[in-house]
Amino acid sequence: MAAKWQVETLRLTVFLNEAAKGSEAEWTALTGQDEAELRQTVPAGRVYAGEYGPGRLNLSFQGSRVDVVLTQNPSTETVAEWPTFASFEDGFPAFVETALGWFESTAYSVIRIAFGCIVLLKTDGVEDTNRALSKYVRSARIEDRVKDFLLRTNWPTKSNVTGSELNRITSFGALRVLTGQFRMGPESGTVSLNDPTFGVRLEIDHSTDAANTTPFEKTLLIPIFEELVNLARENVESGECP
Q1: Which residues on adjacent β-strands are paired with residue 52?
Q2: Is 1 among the domain residues?
Q3: Structural domain of 99
Q4: Model pTM?
Q5: Number of domains in the chain
């Protein structure tokens, strides 16, 4: 039975050889929406955000960096136990399709591409978490009694598209989440905590070489991104890939 990973964050990041202007027209091209719910000026850039698909989409321009990030919608009426918004099977392909649309419409000269995500897998306790981690982690031995496990590695690999090196960074960690309710009385407040929930947290950050300063050919942008996505999918399904 396949592991039931849940998505917390999905991210596309690109670096340009110029300053990213950023406009609402780019939000419209990305989402099909006439305007963003949020428009904000930040130092050296702009941010556009709004409800999109299963979550909340954020399109930000800062200096020569552009980020497209999909997260849980904070306006959701039901408070989720974990900050996730979709299953991996549903959220992953939906975001990838959106990101591919950005590459098709952009006129920027791109010198670096990164794909990142955070996915969570619920378990039944500390020992179950460690057993789950043992299935995905290749470079460490995890005993049942270990707590607070965290391992970050970069297993670089050669790109089949450009022939250059790709960074393949994964961070596997044990997760323990406490939730509760705060009730305010006439004179004081009380806090009641629920039983903790446990799980595995996987953060992925795959990218092209940071040293590259030559813009990629337009025809290579989508193949490079798809290669990074496929590497990430393999990590979610199989774990570390030395």
Answers
A1: 55
A2: no
A3: 6-238
A4: 0.91
A5: 1
